[in-house]
# Entry
Amino acid sequence: MKADIGLIGLAVMGENLVLNIESRGYTVAVFNRTTEKVTNFISGRGKGKKIIPAYSLEELIANLSRPRKVMLMVKAGKPVDDFIDMIIPLLEKGDIIIEGGNSHFPDTIRRTQYVESKGLLYIGTGVSGGEEGALLGPSLMPGGSKEAWPFVKDIFYAISAKASDGASCCTWIGDNGAGHFVKMAHNGIEYGDMQLICEAFHLLKYSGGFSYDEMAGIFEEWNRAELDSYLIQITGEILRFRDSDGEPIVTKILDAAGQKGTGKWTVVSALDHGVPLSLIGESVFARFISSMKKERVKAAGLFAGPARGTIADGKQFIDDIRKALYASKIVSYAQGFNLLKNAAAEYKWDLNYGEIAMIWRGGCIIRSAFLNRIFEAFRNDPKLPNLIMDGYFSSILNESSESWRRVISVAVRDGVPVPAMSAALSWFDSYRSAWLPASLLQAQRDYFGAHTYQRTDRPDGDYFHTNWTGHGGDTASSTYNA
# Structure
């Protein structure tokens, strides 16, 4: 009996994906560079299942039905390239290599071109949902060689998460690196969601003075309305969880956040594409500064913060934070989808933004009811210039504006850092401004560097230079956007 698909890499994600695929009726061949892991898996979690062990790459390939489908679940970077080079000589024209790690999208663009040049097909797929998602159903974001999709889509649809309406949380994203780019953007948005929730928690705890049980109840209440999401749900559960001594376990966790780099990639990509991804950028920086724990402890002894004010109406404060959190979340997704649109234009990807929102509704970390609203927005206007221009989102931002500003004001008054919420409000105020002080900035650039400027009273596209000091000449620098 031949296997329907082969998988290389039996770490946590690989093992769970194998079990997921097998549970949907498929036979899987497995290989791991440390072959002892193959033996342990087959005699453990994989015992008695339709899983074929392989102790060499040759044996793995020999056990696959054609066109052969080989999925790599190995560490991103050089190990992926090494395995691609090792298995290419063992494959035949039309066979398919699938890579499901957190690879950087430029690597996937390069690998797709390389593998196709060998007569083979390549898929780089984002896999979101962690260990549980891999086992029970992740959100899948495949891209690469379009010709490969008909041969793998049944497996992908079968193993992916299902939304509340039964729809599969998987769709073909686009050519070469599109799948991994969308996964990267997903992770960036995830950074934003998590930071916003942490800022709401900080305000409730410090400025509001609420207990951990009270805060858990607040998040549980929020999870029954428009903020309904996996991250809000688990936040309530975390705040209720007690250590063996009865104290909230979150109070004993070191306040120094880790990361694996995908948030940073998102911000770097935004800089490359000229997209103001300010909220997600601040979320990444917030993790950086949290890791400076020893410096922060020293600084706390040097600088006295403001005296904490009082909250006159606790119920109103909770509602203000809820509205500020939701408004900021809208901005985060608006920035994220703007990044997708700019990348699609540059790389000539035909991205379906509504479908992307739909496949994030299940399996992945940012799954939420909110994503249905994004789908509806792009269904109503597939060429929507920005998410906040949709009627639903614009009305929410207008209704939330006063609460949003009150929350930021309390944070500033009490010395509570809210980098993501305040970045969201600053972006919103910039976006809704018909005039910005960039006119002065352009004058400054022309003054010291003769970089030229456009005039409001002259045709668009005409550039001018002023001899500001009377000592300069008429020669101007070339005009360009880096």
